[in-house]
Amino acid sequence: xxxxxxxxxxxxxxxxxxxxxxxxxxxxxxxxxxxxxxxxxxxxxxxxxxxxxxxxxxxxxxxxxxxxxxxxxxxxxxxxxxxxxxxxxxxxxxxxxxxxxxxxxxxxxxxxxxxxxxxxxxxxxxxxxxxxxxxxxxxxxxxxxxxxxxxxx
Length: 153
Known about the structure:
The protein is mostly helical.
């Protein structure tokens, strides 16, 4: 790697695996493109055409992430997997060191589960809003945490 090449932040392999669900825009969110990710979600990947084109665009999306986001101790792929599979429990926030909001999300989800779903009336919408915010901003959140780690070192 030359001194002018940025360190890779996202996994090309994971990007292609997520692309399999690309008609939902998941790979676009992963690569830091929330607006087009939302469009893909609402239009099923532009009726599949955009999804197929993205098969060839993923390497450039991945390279663009290396230039846009700060590499560091927080792994983008791990954070995204935690958001995708355990986001409702706030595990991705705990991984980022955002203990307060991570525990808040965990507590709300445990209250919903413990009430047999009854408390979803009160906590479901706030949890969904927090998940949407993270879907749109997770890459930036990770980049800020990684940059702070570099500054402190």
